[in-house]
Structure formats: C-alpha cells, structure tokens
C-alpha cells in the first residue's frame, strides 16, 4: 500500500475509535447532560495540546461471548497535554463503550499513564465515568483495580493526583478517587457509593435514591469525600484549571509564582471582628483582606464548615490557609473539622506550600455523639499534622484561643515558626465564664450575692487572662500586632521563612491516628 | 432562610456564642440511656425463628431468637437469667436496625 493510502487508512481507523461506543451511545450520554470522554479532555487541556495514546488497545475478554465484541480503546482515553502551559497526564473513562466498565487492558492503559505521570513528575487527572468492574472479565478486572490503587498510593505526595467524578463510580472503583488528593463532583452527574440502592434495599430493607445515597451534594456536604462541588461540567473544569494554577507540578518544585497584587477587599480589616466577643463574623473576610487580589480558592466549602481551608497567594506565591470559622458552630474543633484540616496540612507539607493559620476558636464541640464518634483520636490528627509539617508555619490569633484548641491550632509548642496575636486575642485555658465557675467556685458559693460575685469574678478573669499578654510574657507569642499590619507582617514572615530547612528524626514514617 | 442559616446560640466552656449550626449538628443523635430489658436489633434483617414464648423463664446464654442478616443467621442470646415479658415480632417479619424485638426482665 502506498504511504498516502496507509495514511488515509490510519485516519479512518482513528476516526472509528474516536466514535467510542457509536452515535447512539453518544446520544444517550449527551441526553443525560454528560459530555463525552474526549470532549471532557479537550475542555480541560490547552487548545491543541492533547495527544492520545493506546487508541488501538483491544480488550482481552473471551468468556461470555466477549471475543466477538469490538470495544474502542477498551473504554478509556489516555494521553498527555498541558494546562496553562504546564504538562499533565490525563485519562477519561468512556461510558459509551461497554458502560465504561473496567477490563484488564482498560486498567493497563490507566496504569500506563499513571506510571508516566510518576516518572515524569507531573500532575495526574483521572475522569471517572464507569459502570464498574467488567464482570465478564472476572478477576482480571479486580487485578486491574488493584494495580490502579497501588499506583495511586505510590504517587501520593509525589505528584498531585486529581479525580473528577463525571458519572457513576461505584463499588471497588470508588477507592481510586478516595486515594487521590482532590475529588471533584458535579451536581446530578456524580454518583459515588460502595453498595448501590438496589443492593441496600434487598439486603437491609433501607429505601434510598441514588442521589440521596451518593450524589454530588451528599459527598460535598456530608461524607467529606469530595473537595470541590460544581453545578455543571464546565464549572468543574474551570475549578480544575484554577487548582492546577495554585499547586506545584510535583513535590520537588514550588508552585508557579505570579505577579504580586494588593488586596482589594471592601471592608477594612480592623472593622471585620465585632466588638462583642459573642458575635460571629466570616473568617474568610479576614483571609481576603490579606491575600493578593483578595483571592481565596476555598476547598471543601460545604463540609465541616466550622473550619476553612484553601489556597491564596501572598506576594505572588501560593500559601495554604487554615482558619476557624466563628460563623459556624462558633468555630469549634470537632471530628470532621480536624479531619479536614489535618489532610490539607499534610498536603501543603508534602508539596512545599507554607501554611498560614488564623485562629478564633472556643474549644472542642461537646456532645455524646462527638465523644462516641472518637473526637479524641480525630482531634489528634490536627495536632499530628501540624507537628509533623516542616514547611513554614505562621499563626495569627485573631480572637479566642482556649484550651486544647490553642495548642492544636499551630501554636509555638507545635513548632510554629511565627505566632502573632491581635490585641483582641484571648489566650487562656478556657473562657471567663467557665473559668470563674471553677476557680472561684468557693468564693461565689460563700458570697452574700452569688450572682454579682460571679460577674465580678468573670470580669477579674477577663481582665487578667483574656488577652494576649500573658502568653506574650512567656514568649509563646512572638508579637502582638495591630490588625491593619497583618498582611505586611505575614509577607515579611513568609519572606524570611523561605529557606526553612529542618530535619525530622530518621524514621520510616510515624503512626498518625488514622 | 434555611435551618442552617438561622442564627443560634451555642455554649462552649460556659461561654455563650452567637453562630449558625451545621446540618450534621442539627440532625445529631441525642443520647438516651439504653434499657437493659430491651432486646433490640443491631442490624436490619428477617426474623427466622422465635425460640421462646411470652412468660417463659430463660437462663443466661440461651438462644431466644434467630435473625437472618447479611446472608448469615445470627443467634440472639438471653443476656441474664430472666423472664420473657413481651414478643413484638413474628416469624418471617423484616425489621430495621434498633427495632425493639423482645422485652425481658430479670428474675429476682
């Protein structure tokens, strides 16, 4: 065959593969409001930058008449491309081909691109849209999943791994996203669960819809399995691109530095915190008052909203923020918020991102449900994560810092590099009311007017202890600062910490309270 | 305004704070002391066999009921020497978790 004919033949073959499961299957996919695998990839990567590999890989199933079937690319599209000029590896399961089910070769294509991402030290984006294991291939499907999960773990902390759930992701398949760094879900499209509604109904008699069991909102708000929630696939892709712009390509690089900008937040920072210590405010207002361009990319916004995590930029460089949210549950620490913060702290530590902590929390959430859920060992996670982190760690105590929470929120004792406090900071073992009841119990009980004695003692305690100066007198606080100085002081602290280099004692790894 | 956006008060360490509640906090299970005389199902399932009658004296450790769940048959034993007061289930009945199956009382 002449070269010209071969090329025409090649193009014809590629066009056939690109049709995936065929026009009808594509119509069905679009009718459900979902894009096709290749459309999704093209929407994420820079225009013209996508190169696909393994288009002609064929499945190996022979049982159950599978030998007669032709499955384009065995149901998955893999390749490399760039996002904003940064190289990335990407794969997208193709629901139009045999329901996107995972067979051995399908899995091998995914592991090929995963190996590539790890070797070349670049981010991996996985778009999940699959009916699950291809039952006809039996144990081979399980082997495929195993190989994927192992590589997720091997690459964890080396390259950023992102999972996008754009369809069903059920049973064993759901463990790959669980092992990755960030999970993106889209309303009405994402479905994640271990056992589906049908099985739950037949075995346990519990009736629940797919959406209520494992829809996007459920994972963004209740289970904490999702980190980003979008209302459409396009919104999701924008979120992915934004995330990639904030994080480094691998653990041996720093994130891209951009032009520094001044914040442009409407309220002055000194007017954000109410004078009445009982009243709440949005901690994100303070974050936006100090970050470049007042931009803050929040992560896990709907889950454990009593703590806020996300990325911002200071002097053009990415910084991770962890902040108590007084507007939700008074900013207490509890099981979910400790979990949420701890994983984020470890992520920043793994990828050389400095951490700024803003503190305003009254303690841990009381309750039998919290205690029985293990607030002790979950709460320990945040202590562990802060202590272990060797990136620059800077804390600003805005208002309350009581008891165990004071220690947990990156105090000097957990080797924070700098701890600053506003004049409104109250650093004490507990709040004035609680303390007065315990320390002055006898005086109050024996007083002629117990209530006014109680008020007097509360005021005494407030004057003596509810301030930053007692802690400052011991050097636990490095400096008491005025609110409007916060940004400049953070910029300076980050600048002088840029070359931080400390070693932990030699060990294979610690044993965090998983 | 949704339940979550409503301003609420929470008391931490004796001090009061104005804030909002989360959905999980609003829906949290409130603790009630378990009644030792209530034999309650710990898993949803089907009643396979009821081995006792109301009024019967039973010794500690005897199997009083067999519950089929997760394709296994689970034997429910008498937790202490006592009497069967009331049986709230029938053979073949499908029950959810935390269902009060049998009420007993200790002998003394």
Keywords:
heterodimer; A: 514 residues; alpha/beta; eight-stranded mixed beta sheet; 20 helices; elongated; B: 47% strand
How are the SSEs placed, and which strands pair?
The complex is a heterodimer of chains A (514) and B (108).
Chain A: H1 3-18, H2 23-31, H3 37-44, E1 51-53, E2 76-83, E3 86-93, H4 104-119, E4 124-128, H5 139-155, E5 161-165, E6 168-170, H6 175-179, E7 182-186, E8 191-193, H7 197-204, H8 210-214, H9 216-223, E9 228-230, H10 233-246, H11 283-290, E10 296-299, E11 307-314, E12 317-324, H12 335-350, E13 355-361, H13 368-373, H14 375-388, E14 393-402, H15 403-408, E15 418-421, E16 426-428, H16 432-439, H17 441-446, H18 450-465, H19 469-473, E17 479-480, H20 486-496
Parallel strand pairs in A: 3-4, 4-5, 5-7, 6-8, 7-9, 12-13, 13-14, 14-15, 14-16, 15-17
Antiparallel strand pairs in A: 1-2, 2-3, 10-11, 11-12
Helix pairs in contact in A: 4-5, 12-14, 16-18
Chain B: E1 7-12, E2 15-20, H1 23-26, E3 38-40, E4 45-50, E5 57-58, E6 63-69, E7 72-77, E8 82-87, E9 94-95, E10 100-106
Antiparallel strand pairs in B: 1-2, 3-10, 4-6, 4-9, 5-8, 6-7, 8-10
Shape of chain B: elongated
Oligomerization category of the chains in this entry: heterodimer
Gross morphology of chain A:
elongated
Strand content of chain B: over 45%
Poorly predicted ranges of chain B (pLDDT <50, ≥5 residues)?
A: none
- Uncertain residue ranges of chain A: none
Q: List the total number of helices of chain B.
A: 1
Number of strands of chain B: 10
**Largest interface summary:** A-B, 37 and 27 residues
């Amino acid at each position: 065959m002449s070269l010209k004919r071969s090329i025409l033949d090649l193009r014809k073959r590629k066009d056939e593969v690109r049709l995936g499961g065929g026009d009808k299957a594509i119509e069905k996919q679009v009718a459900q409001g979902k894009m096709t695998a290749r459309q999704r990839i093209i929407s994420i990567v820079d225009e013209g930058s996508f190169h696909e590999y393994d288009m002609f890989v064929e499945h190996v199933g022979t049982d159950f008449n599978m030998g007669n079937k032709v499955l384009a690319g065995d149901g998955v599209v893999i390749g490399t491309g760039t996002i904003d000029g940064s190289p990335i590896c990407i794969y997208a399961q193709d629901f139009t081909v045999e329901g996107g089910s995972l067979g051995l070769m399908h899995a091998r294509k995914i592991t090929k691109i995963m190996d590539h991402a790890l070797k070349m030290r670049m981010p991996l984006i996985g778009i999940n849209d699959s009916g699950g294991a291809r039952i006809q291939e039996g144990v081979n499907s399980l082997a495929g999943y195993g190989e994927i999960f192992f590589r997720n773990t091997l690459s964890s902390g080396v390259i950023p791994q992102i999972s996008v759930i754009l369809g069903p992701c059920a049973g064993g398949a759901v463990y790959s996203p669980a092992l990755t760094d960030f999970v993106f879900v889209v309303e009405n499209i994402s479905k994640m669960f271990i056992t589906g509604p049908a099985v739950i109904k037949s075995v346990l008699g519990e009736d629940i819809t797919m959406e209520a069991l494992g829809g996007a909102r459920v994972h963004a708000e209740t289970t904490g399995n999702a980190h980003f929630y979008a209302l459409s696939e396009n919104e999701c892709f924008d979120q992915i691109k934004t995330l990639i712009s904030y994080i480094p390509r691998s653990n041996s690089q720093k994130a891209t530095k951009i032009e520094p900008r001044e914040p442009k937040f409407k309220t002055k920072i000194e007017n954000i915190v109410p004078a009445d210590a009982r009243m709440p405010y949005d901690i994100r207002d303070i974050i936006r008052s100090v970050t470049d361009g007042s931009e803050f990319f929040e992560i896990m916004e709907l889950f454990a909203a009593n703590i806020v995590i996300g990325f911002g930029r200071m002097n053009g460089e990415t910084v991770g923020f962890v902040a108590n949210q007084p507007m939700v549950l008074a900013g207490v620490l509890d099981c979910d918020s400790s979990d949420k913060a701890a994983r984020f702290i470890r992520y920043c530590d793994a990828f050389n991102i400095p951490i700024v902590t803003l503190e305003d929390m009254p303690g841990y959430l009381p309750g039998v449900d919290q205690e029985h859920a293990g607030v002790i060992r979950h709460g320990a996670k945040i202590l562990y994560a802060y202590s272990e982190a060797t990136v620059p760690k800077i804390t600003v105590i805005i208002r309350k810092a009581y008891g165990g929470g004071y220690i947990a929120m990156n105090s000097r004792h957990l080797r924070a590099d700098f701890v600053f406090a506003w004049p409104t900071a109250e650093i004490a073992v507990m709040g004035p009311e609680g303390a007065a009841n315990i320390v002055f119990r006898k005086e109050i009980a024996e007083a002629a007017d117990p209530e006014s004695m109680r008020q007097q003692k509360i005021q005494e305690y407030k004057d003596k202890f509810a301030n930053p100066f007692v802690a400052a007198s011991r050097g636990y606080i490095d400096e008491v600062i005025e609110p409007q100085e916060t940004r400049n002081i953070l910029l300076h602290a980050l600048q002088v910490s840029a070359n931080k280099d400390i070693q932990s004692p030699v060990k294979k790894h610690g044993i965090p309270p998983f | 305004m949704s339940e979550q956006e409503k301003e609420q008060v929470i008391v931490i360490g004796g001090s009061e704070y104005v804030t909002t509640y989360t959905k999980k906090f609003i829906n949290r299970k409130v603790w009630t002391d378990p009644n030792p005389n209530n034999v309650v199902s710990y898993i949803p399932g089907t009643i396979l066999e009821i081995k006792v009658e109301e009024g019967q004296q039973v010794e500690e450790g005897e199997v009083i009921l067999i519950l089929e769940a997760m394709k296994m048959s689970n034997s429910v034993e008498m937790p202490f020497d006592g009497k069967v007061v009331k049986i709230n289930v029938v053979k073949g009945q499908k029950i959810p978790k935390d269902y009060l199956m049998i009420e007993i009382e200790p002998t003394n």
